[in-house]
Design a protein that fits this description.
The complex is a heterodimer of chains A (95) and B (164). Chain A is mainly α and 95 residues long. Helix content of chain A is 75%, strand content 0%. Chain B is built from three helices and no strands. The N and C termini of chain B lie far apart (54 Å). Classes of the chains: A mainly alpha (95), B mainly alpha (164).
Chain lengths: 95, 164
């Protein structure tokens, strides 16, 4: 297992998520290409307070795929856009 | 707007917890864009991993299960892939447009300082400073192009799903 993946998992273990949530993170990180793990780790490092949001968003997307729920999937993608805009409030991102 | 040399944004300063957050002006915008870009890339990485997870499930050995999966989940998977890619590309473009705007602002600040400079020595120092900024930006953009290619390759793999 890569060090970067280990570092993200350490954050996950420290975040007091449920055992089910931790297991989801482990499965998802296992499938993440190494180059992209760096992107995930970088963001978690600069914005550790976003862990809860990432956890909820991951759960929502996987639940939508498991249940075949298109409405939930749309909701997760809309949430994602709102979250990204909230990271840059003074930029008035036109998205 | 004048840009003071000491106010130049340095992403490295924001790389760890408890580091400083700029209070305003161009530096704040740069910081927010940096944070937005990092968040966008992270969510893109998670979307790719989620898609990988489900794509693999479509290649399970149990034929009956695989058939059922294809019928029930394939349309949703295609939908997710399409929306995730479209949303990512739109957000990435928005970030690039803002990045260019900020750089124009920085350039204008240097131009103004050049106009106000009274000695040749001062002008040379300003030019050198601006060239350093440009070099650092070019380096950042080159690194970003490599990353973009990785993302495009992975997204390309998923776009193949849409064709099946």
């Amino acid at each position: 297992m890569s060090t970067i993946r280990d570092n993200i998992l350490l954050r996950v273990y420290k975040a007091s998520f449920s055992a089910e949530d931790v297991s989801l993170w482990e499965r998802i990180l296992e499938k993440m290409p190494d180059e992209l793990l760096e992107d995930a780790a970088r963001f978690i490092e600069i914005s550790p307070e976003s862990m809860s949001y990432l956890n909820e968003n991951l759960k929502k997307k996987t639940e939508a795929l498991e249940k075949g729920d298109i409405k939930l999937l749309d909701e997760a993608l809309t949430d994602q856009k709102k979250f990204l805009k909230s990271l840059a409030p003074s930029l008035n991102l036109n998205i | 707007m004048k840009i003071k040399p000491e106010s130049q944004f340095n992403p490295e300063e924001f790389g760890s917890e408890g580091s400083k957050t700029p209070e305003g002006g161009t530096e704040k915008k740069e910081y927010e864009l940096f944070r937005f870009g990092a968040g966008l890339k992270a969510l893109g990485a998670f979307n790719i991993a989620i898609l990988s997870n489900y794509r693999l499930s479509l290649f399970a050995s149990d034929e009956e299960w695989k058939k059922r999966e294809k019928e029930t989940r394939m349309p949703l998977l295609k939908n997710f892939t399409k929306k995730a890619i479209q949303s990512y590309q739109a957000l990435e473009k928005a970030g690039e447009v803002i990045d260019e705007g900020i750089f124009r602002e920085i350039s204008a600040g240097y131009e103004e300082r050049m106009n106000d400079a009274t000695t040749e020595e001062e002008r040379r120092a300003i030019i050198k400073e601006f060239e350093d900024i440009k070099r650092s930006r070019d380096k950042k953009l080159a690194q970003e192009t490599i990353r973009k290619n990785v993302r495009s390759t992975v997204f390309g793999m998923f776009e193949e799903i849409l064709k099946k």
